[in-house]
Amino acid sequence: MVNNTLNPDSNSLIIHHQNICGLINKTDKLISSMFPVPPHILCLNEHHLKDTEINQINIERFKLCTAYCRKTMKKGGVCIFAQNGLICSKIDVKKYCSDQDIEICMINLQTIYTRLHIMVVYRAPTGDFNVFLNRLDDLIKSIYKTKSNLIICGDINIDYLSENNRKKQLDSMLQTYNLTATVNFPTRIQGRSSTLIDNIFLILPKF
Question: What is the pLDDT of residues 105-119, one digit of tens each?
Fold first, then answer.
């Protein structure tokens, strides 16, 4: 679970990102975990729902903006909820998605301060890393041309607490778009091991 607070000018935007590992029976627990200050945007990995099921999910004070549900396999999936009243629109990124390899959904959030794209992405441990890297590169490239600020929330199953080849490849690609990882602490602790496989990347304004 990752919370990230941005401060554009005097305002603030709170984004909550979490691998929920099945959303169907966890909405009440999710709401409780966000008390007393709920986020503006809720990004979830692995909701485990079909299209017809996720459209029936009700999270108090939030609306479902967009979701990707697996087409050929069970579980997985990503979704974004936003607080009622926020002006946001779905961006169609289905052509970049592939079950397990790269599962993405994205919104455009309009504020008085900036135009902001928010993306949530999931890559399963068994997913094809090259497919993930190439399609993410293609998608970011298409966004970068619009000169919009971008936030990527993701469970990418690449440990950012250790130096490894996949981390280096991903960082190299992201740096070409001025994207910077913002989480530098363990997001999963199991027994004596800890990893950082959930992360938030920011693309910084450069125009």
Answer: 999 998 776 778 999
